[in-house]
From TrEMBL:
Its EC number is 6.3.2.12, 6.3.2.17. One of its GO terms (biological process) is tetrahydrofolate biosynthetic process. It comes from BD1-7 clade bacterium. This is Dihydrofolate synthase/folylpolyglutamate synthase. Residues 47-191 form the Mur ligase central domain. It holds the Pfam family Mur_ligase_M. InterPro entries: Folylpolyglutamate_synth, Mur-like_cat_sf, Mur_ligase_C, Mur_ligase_C_dom_sf, Mur_ligase_cen. Gene3D superfamilies: Mur ligase, C-terminal domain, Mur-like, catalytic domain.
Length: 428
């Protein structure tokens, strides 16, 4: 198919398949087989979990790059550009490279009379790009669940489960046990497993027992402070202290455990490890900006589990006397908004919500009512997020703080306004 730009391809992909989310491996496996993508020679690390997947993928990528290994990273969703999803040695794939991959996938799917979803095209495009390179590792983030996700057409050499929370319940089930079952679907009989969920449901606990595994709170411990993360390795009886990067501390620590225990990655000392991790920042993971004397935090927290992590991070960043913290916030319809608000309702003096230009978005009036029902009365409703952010800024004095959160789409809309400003450390 002839498209002149990557954006034209993406616009076409959004509408050419009858379902936005179409779980199952048969169709995508057939196209991957036709393209010769099923059996990569590189080591494959597959990462599933409710939260913390991107943090793990990027942390491991940073460690691999620092040690001289060549790695392809696949993550989703993106914030500002589709190219963010496909990295080779830390660099985004070019528009032309991705377009060539899309065209090859289209030709193969046409030959097989198979229709693929947007995410299936994205996944196969990453595999196609990686297959053109001489890579040592493919580090792959599962999009949804695990068992029936397109990433799972590959047999992983190592599997990672970062967390189990109640999200995407319409697809994965309405209990943590059911969701854990879906995420454990990335495992094969002999796949080594990294488990970063301290409260593992039975099916995940059983997998940890039956597989070679490294398990948080059993084999290693993670202690977070305001500016550091201390990883205690109980197997080797040693400790490393690394700076906060804004990423999930458990995911960063899990990546380090995998790299040093099973991948034989050697970095000279703690300083080299810290430098490697600090070099690979991930946007909108408690990302801080100084905007005309006001601190603005962008965070993609969008479900109860990530909201709890945001609450913890905010508690480590106390305001100066008399300063106030303001939320710019909305959510999608399929997310547990009530639980997110309950987790964070005491953290903010005022809430600014707005209409989000997304078919899955909640009405701003519904968001405002949910906030008001918790006894919060300083609420502003705007016609769009840019207006909400402008109104929040107009209420602020120096040393006040604005926190933007609730969805990847919320942050993506406002992040371009923040990027010209100076970035602050993740947590001081």
């Amino acid at each position: 198919m002839q498209h002149d730009t990557l954006q034209q391809w993406l616009d076409w992909l959004e509408h050419q398949h009858p379902k936005l989310i179409d779980l199952g491996l048969e169709r995508v496996s057939a196209v991957a087989e036709r393209l010769g993508l099923i059996s990569p020679t590189a080591t494959v690390v597959t990462v599933a979990g409710t939260n913390g997947k991107g943090s793990f993928v990027h942390s491991l990528g940073a460690l691999l790059k620092a040690s001289g290994q060549h790695a392809g990273l696949f993550t989703s969703p993106h914030l500002l550009a589709f190219n963010e999803r496909i990295l080779v040695d830390g660099q985004q794939a070019s528009d032309n490279t991705i377009m060539l991959a899309f065209d090859a996938i289209f030709q193969a799917s046409q030959q097989l009379d198979i229709s693929l979803s947007y995410f299936e095209y994205s996944t196969l495009a990453a595999f196609y790009v990686f297959n053109q390179e001489n890579l040592d590792f493919w580090v792959l983030e599962v999009g949804l669940g695990g068992r029936l996700d397109a990433v799972n057409i590959l047999t992983p050499d190592y599997a990672v489960i970062t967390s189990i929370g109640l999200d995407h319940m319409e697809y994965l089930g309405d209990t943590r046990e059911k969701i854990a079952f879906e995420k454990c679907g990335i495992l094969r009989e002999q796949t080594p497993l990294i488990c970063l969920e301290p409260d593992a449901p039975d099916v995940l606990s059983a997998a940890c027992s039956s597989h070679r595994s490294l398990v948080i709170e059993r084999d290693f411990e993670v202690v977070e402070s305001s500016d550091t993360v201390a990883l205690t390795d109980r197997i080797r009886q040693c400790q490393i202290v690394i700076p906060q990067t804004g990423l999930s501390p458990a995911s960063v620590s899990g990546a380090l455990m995998l790299a040093t225990h099973w991948l034989d990655i050697e970095l000279s000392d703690d300083t080299a490890i810290s430098a490697a991790l600090a070099s690979h920042q991930l946007a909108a993971r408690f990302q801080r900006f100084a905007v005309d004397g006001i601190e603005v935090v962008a965070d993609v927290a969008h479900n109860p589990q990530s909201a709890e992590l945001l609450h913890q991070r905010l508690s480590q960043l106390p305001l100066k006397d008399g300063a106030k913290r303001i939320a710019v916030f909305t959510m999608l319809n399929d997310k547990d908004m009530d639980a997110v608000i309950d987790c964070l309702k005491d953290d903010f003096k005022a809430w600014f919500t707005a209409e989000l230009d997304n078919p899955r978005a909640r009405l701003a009036s519904d968001v405002a009512n949910a906030i008001h029902n918790r006894g919060i009365h300083m609420i502003s409703v705007s016609k769009n997020l840019r207006q909400a952010f402008a109104r929040a800024r107009s209420l602020c004095q120096p040393d006040d703080q604005i926190v933007i959160f609730g969805s990847f789409f919320v942050v993506a809309e406002l992040l371009p306004k923040l990027l010209p400003y100076a970035k602050l450390p993740s947590i001081e």
